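Justification of computing resources. Each target in the renewal requires a structure prediction run like the one illustrated here; the chain below, 364 residues long, is used simply to show the kind of job we budget for.
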Amino acid sequence: MRIGVFKETKENENRVALSPQVVKQLIQKGHTVLVERGAGDASAFSDSSFEKEGASIVERSVISAESDVIIRVNPPELTEVDTYKEGAVLISLLYHLMNEELCARLASRRVSAFSMDAIPRISRAQSMDVLSSQSNLAGYKAVLMGANEMTRIFPLMMTAAGTIQPSKVLIFGVGVAGLQAIATAKRLGAVVEATDVRPECQEQAESLGARFITVQGEVGSEGGYAKEATEEYRQKQREAVNKSLFNADLVITTALVPGRKAPVLIDQDQVERMKFGSVIVDMAVEQGGNCTLSRAGETVEHKGVRIMGYGNLPSTLSTNASELYARNVITFLNHLAPEGTFLFDLEEEITDSTLITHAGEKRK
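Resulting C-alpha cells:
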C-alpha cells in the first residue's frame, strides 16, 4: 500500500501522524510511505530523518493523488477530502459525532474513514488507544502548566527561615489524564485530592497517593467512559468537593462526555469562593469547559483566581505525542490489514466501532 502523511494544518498543532521509527517498520512490511515536506519539523523530526528510514518527501498534491491510505492526526478540511482518490482509506481522529458534514463528504467520495477516537475501551485494543496515550501526556503537562502559573511551590520545604507547607491540588476526573496528573503532582510533592463520578476510580486514585472524595450515589461508566451525571448527582458532588475546592492551590479538571459538551463542574460562584491566587487548569475547554469562566486559548483572571483554558496539550509535547500516536496507528493498521490488504470485517468489534464511512455510506 502507498501510505501518505500530511503536514497538520490545524492551528497550534505540532504533531505528525507517523514517526521515522514507525515509517521504518511500515517500509519493512513492504509499504511505500509518502511524507509531506516539513510534516515533522514541529515534532523535531526532520525530512532527512524520514528519508533515512526509506520515506519519500513529496508535495501535498502528490500525497492526495497517489496515496491508498492517508494517516492524519486531526480531521481533514472538507476541501482536502475532495482531493483524495476515490476509494482511499483515511485513518485519523475524526470526532465523527461532532463532524457530520465531514463524514458525509467522506462518504460521498467513497473514502473508508476510520476514527481513532472511536477505539473501543477493551483490553485487546489498549495498544491502539490514541485517546489514552495522548491523555497521559496531557495530564502530565497540565500539572506543569499549573505549577508554572502558581505563586507557591509544590513540596514541603524546610528552610532556615521556616517551613513551607506543601501545595494542595484537587483533580476532577480520574481517567487516564487525571491519573497521570495525580502521579505528577505527587512526584512534585503536593498534597493531592481527586474525585470522579465512577466509584471504581477510588482504588486507582488512592494507589497513586491521592485522597479520593466520595459522593453519595453512583453514576458509573459505559464503554470505558464516565456516564453523564444527573443534576442531583452534580449537586451532591458540588457539596462534597467544595471544602477541598476552596482550599486548593491548583485545580485540574478533566471531565469529558464523548460527543457532548463538557459537564460544568465549577461555576462562577464557586470560583469566587476559592483562595485568592489559586489556579484552575481546564483541560476540557475545547468541548465547552468544566469551568463556566474558561476561555479557549486564554488565561482568565477572576477575583484573584487564574483560569487556564488551553487545549490540545499533547501538541506541546509533540515529539513524544507523535511517537505514541504513530505506535497506536501502526498497531491499528496491522490489525485492520494484517497481510497488507484491508479486511473490513464488520463483525469484528474494533473494525465495526471505528469504521465511520465505507462503500459510499456513513455507518455511524
